[in-house]
From TrEMBL:
Record's protein name: DUF397 domain-containing protein
InterPro entries to which the protein is assigned, alphabetical: DUF397
Pfam families to which the protein is assigned, alphabetical: DUF397 (PF04149)
Source organism, top-level taxon: Bacteria
Biological source species: Streptosporangium longisporum
Domain DUF397: 5-57
Amino acid sequence: MNRDLVWRKSSLSGGQQNCVEVAQIGDSVAVRDSKDPDGPRLTFTRSVWLDFVAGLKGHA
């Protein structure tokens, strides 16, 4: 895994460890489980990620 990535999680998580974290990789976004930082991760193009986030905001 790339240890140089800057992983972040939502400020709404309240410091919980049971959440997802995201990191930017060039023009892509990686997502991982905060409980398993060395485990698998999903990678999405920036446009797909922005569509996903917009969909979440539309259902809030």
